[in-house]
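Subject: Sanity check before I submit

Could someone independently write out the structure tokens for this chain? I want to compare against mine line by line before I put it in a report. The sequence has 255 residues.
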Amino acid sequence: MRVNWIGIYTMVRREIERTFRVATQTLLSPVISAALYIFIFGYVIGSNIQEVAGVSYITFVFPGILMLNIIGAAFASSSSSLYFARFTRGVEEILVAPFSYAGMMFGYMFGAVLRGVLVAILIMIVGLFFGAVTLANPLAFLFYVATVSGIFALLGMFVALWAQSFEQLTVLNTFVITPLTYLGGIFYSISMLPETVQFLTRLNPFFYFVDGIRSSMIGISEANTGIGVLVILGLLIGLAILVTYVFKIGWRIRA
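---
Independent answer below. Compare away.
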């Protein structure tokens, strides 16, 4: 199958330009939100908490705060872009172009991943001022940021196809993503939990997202790294196949 690299590049460039056109919403907003989380939970509350897993509390929670905003950025990027393309019928121009369904998927996904990476860089700059940033394994960090962003970019695309109104775009984020994220160990170590709750936490895929980014930043892991990588890659590949398939059958994008 021939890959339309020019088409993918054009879609990614369009998504990046769109990100910078509304930078206050797409870049500044998550940075301010992260700064408040870092200050309140890491600096104010953290100053009264003893070390967690051998590091300061602010250093321990920072990777989780970073991941929370990466997820939001990637999900919002792909879901809003594709939904508006449906709403304005602009997606029809892509459908009639010499573009494969996998190419469409990659175009939207790469654009959302780059937005997630930009948000991560900006939040890390903020974290430096609080002394919260360490980077034990830069390559692993890039892997986790890119793959987690990719997962939620794909999930955002699926929701954009499913949604029948602007309100429905936020349903999954409000009732599924946010609760599972907070229950995935952002602000605490699972060693603080009863054994039964620890077991339930390990069934939450968001725990592996948090733990992966945390291990790459501070070198401390509470999960089995191999299982975490399998969960992340499995979700990424599975969602990529699903989104490509729904593009192929024209679900909600063809009359």
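---
OP: Matches mine. For the report I'm noting this point. DSSP finds ten helices and no strands in the chain.
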